[in-house]
Amino acid sequence: MKFQTQIFNAQADFTSSIALGAELLKKGELVSFPTETVYGLGARIFEEAAVLKIFAAKGRPNDNPLIAHISAISDIEKIAVEIPDAFLKLAEAFFPGPLAVVVKKHPRVPAAVSAGLDTIAIRMPDHDVALALISATGEPLVAPSANISGRPSPTIAQHVLEDMAGKIPAILDGGACRVGIESTVISILGKTPIILRPGTITNEEIEDVLKTKIEVVSSFTTNERVASPGMKYRHYAPKAKVLLFKNGAEAEMFLKENDLLKTRILSNSFKNARPLLAETLYAEFRDADKASIEQIVIILDDNTEQKLGLMNRILKAAE
Ligand code: TXA
Ligand code: MG
User: Do residues 263 and 274 lie in contact, with contact meaning Cβ atoms separated by under 8 Å?
Assistant: First the structure.
């Protein structure tokens, strides 16, 4: 245990929490902070030693690139080159918000940030604590989700503490994350923009802004050639086994033969189930593990199946 990890209440003590967080970051330490999607594990982008600490703290494979978080549009010139028009259109429409855009990396950005790629994913989080922390630090922050690799992303400060206690000096507590699943990642490097990781911003919303058809990576699973390296790893998974059902009747039969004390049901269409929402999915996973639940039964419905981002996380967890 290198640190006595402290949680700072960034809602009650906004100014002092930001000042403290920025001071630690400037010293090359890691600080966890809230965003609208999930909690991030932040380091200064130009401090390679700090960036490497992120991989160690998470147990993250070093071929999985990080997302740069900016607080002002003018920040992009420091970290990207040959910025296409499409970037500015997307930024205008969705920043701050849950969209990360992959463009060409500035050679000044340490190689570890992008796992050796010459590209960089950039987003502006829609959270006052995140934005203030980035500005106070004076440079963009790289921030993966603040979980141990493979575990569900944290959506409250307590989740971060579960995974990062002793490994980082500070967590800024900004309450529960509004969105609950990670940002949509889109690459605009090729002729056709392509969604590398689905989120809550839909393809249609992006097509409306870019006035062009976009693609979605067909395989979000194990494949050496995946465009977004992070998608090939097992993700978002609780320890409990996740079982998917398309209809209530089948689920009912399954539940009759199983120990309900060790089972949890998530659904928007099934009696006595807990809600199946992006906002609460990861919290449900973590909570089930704490309660020693052995299986999580997820019963889908048409409305849920339309939600690409949520479905992607559910399918990953059930793999
Ligand atoms: O919502 C989010 O994006 C959260 C919060 C903290 O901002 N962050 C997050 O980071 O989810 P992380 O590291 O858990 O996921 C980053 C994803 C990975 O799938 C990674 O492969 C992809 O973004 N990515 C990052 N840089 C990339 C690049 N240059 N090219 C392609 N994919 C990239
Ligand atoms: Mg992650």
Answer: no
